Amino acid sequence: MTDTRYETLNQLGGDTALPASPEAAILERVANPCDAPYLIRFACPEFTSLCPVTGQPDFAHLVIDYAPKDWIVESKSLKLFLGSFRNHGAFHEACTTMIAQRMVKELDPAWLRIGGYWYPRGGIPIDVFFQTGQPPEGLWVPDQGVAPYRGRG
């Protein structure tokens, strides 16, 4: 008998190479185990990508919040997807919104937001935010907990 709560999970439980690019990364998902509204948060305080002009590394603290409908993201596949940006050249805005839009496409959540808190390049920190709309009524949405830049740390 096949358990329909899980799609094929090819990355979990084994050695999986870091995808060569975000486009090559596979976001795997499993059925949402809860029928009440709730929030899932992923924090990635050491996110890296590359500046598309200079090739120098860019660093961010990402906070991804979402309220699932039918699916939740499998966390190892999300980690590999985020790691695939290490050699990806794109501006802060493109990286942040690309992550959000990919999660929306793959999961179709009831609500999603991402905060991309980027460390300074050229003396200016750039924080990028994306949200799909209003959170579901009654959903507890805590503050993302990342202070405005003052030498974060």
TrEMBL record:
InterPro entries: GTP-CH-I_C/QueF (IPR043133), NADPH_dep_7-cyano-7-deazaG_red (IPR050084), QueF (IPR029500), QueF_type1 (IPR016856). Keywords: Cytoplasm, NADP, Oxidoreductase, Queuosine biosynthesis. It holds the Pfam family QueF. It is found in: Cytoplasm. Its EC number is 1.7.1.13. Its main location: cytoplasm. The active site is at residues 51, 58. Belongs to the GTP cyclohydrolase I family. QueF type 1 subfamily. Catalyzes the NADPH-dependent reduction of 7-cyano-7-deazaguanine (preQ0) to 7-aminomethyl-7-deazaguanine (preQ1). This is NADPH-dependent 7-cyano-7-deazaguanine reductase. It comes from Hyphobacterium vulgare.
